[in-house]
Amino acid sequence: xxxxxxxxxxxxxxxxxxxxxxxxxxxxxxxxxxxxxxxxxxxxxxxxxxxxxxxxxxxxxxxxxxxxxxxxxxxxxxxxxxxxxxxxxxxxxxxxxxxxxxxxxxxxxxxxxxxxxxxxxxxxxxxxxxxxxxxxxxxxxxxxxxxxxxxxxxxxxxxxxxxxxxxxxxxxxxxxxxxxxxxxxxxxxxxxxxxxxxxxxxxxxxxxxxxxxxxxxxxx
Length: 220
Ligand code: C5P
Known about the structure:
The record marks 15, 22 as: Transition state stabilizer. By secondary structure, the chain is an alpha/beta fold.
């Protein structure tokens, strides 16, 4: 089974407040995107495509191994992944879509996703339980409802797919519909999505505190 990785790295990262796109922000001296690419390769992915902001192609090329293919991302994550998929080699049987914003994802997570695909799942996501009490609030900020958390899961990346299944699902997604992850795209096409164990270390870097925590993790 041959696997291609698509790393979504074309976001601006405005919530992080950095002076550069989030994927180029450094963690222990290396850009987040370099960590994410290394995780995919260490976990068993054969080739990697990275979607980048058009104006930053040279900076990404300098930060990544030469074997990594760079493609221009879009205005939204959905558009960026579409661009990455179009550039991903047609020889691959499966695709893993990963966020550059999850730099410390252990390669074991990649291996679990690949194993589920090899076992026949058409789509698979790493998940973790929800540990906080979770509620719905109304427009005024009052708690309107409590959500039983036993069956809730937080969804991480990389998310793995049979390549043909993912391409067909994106082809069937109307332009302009934006979904926050790729499993939502295949679910919209009626494809069952399996789960494997995620990992707390695969936490997403969104706000400055997340980067601080990631820094503590690599300092150990
Ligand atoms: O904004 P957020 O952190 O949810 O983005 C998740 C991932 O999607 C990030 O790695 C970001 O670089 C990527 N992205 C992208 N193209 C966009 C917006 C986000 O590749 N237009």
